[in-house]
Amino acid sequence: MSKNEIRQCSLDRVKEYGDLYSAAFSGPSWFDPWQAADAAVHVKELLEIPTAYCLEYTVDGQAAGLLLGHSQMFHSGRIFEISDLAVSPDFQKRGIGRQLLEQCLDNLEQMGIGSVSLLTASEGSLADFYKKFGFTPSGRVMLMEKELRSDK
Fold first, then answer.
1. pLDDT tens, 74-87?
2. Predicted TM-score of the model (pTM)
3. Rounded to an integer, what distance in angstroms lies between the CA atom of residue 151 and that of residue 110?
């Protein structure tokens, strides 16, 4: 029987997190071409934010899922942004993402966080997943972007 645990992420495990992250986001639903080394840098940078709150889900000591985010002060109080929720393809469809999100939301509520936000795909299973936890599309903001360089 495997031992499953949710605990705080550790900078000592950044390489393992990078491998997990690149595998999770390179496949469905995102298909982003992450390299493990770049993903490790991304995760390390998030972990080093002073107000970071990051959880890992382990199965027999192996990282199977991550929830990465941080809080910041806003005019309405302290808010939290979930930057990433990633589950290794080898462990998907086992409730790991749900457990990480539930633990995070419970802990944030106990910490007095006023609201939680995240960016996700606007349609499909990811949006439906977050809606189950009470997340709703915000009509007040939209994501805008501008490309600063071309790799052509």
1. 998 899 999 999 99
2. 0.88
3. 45
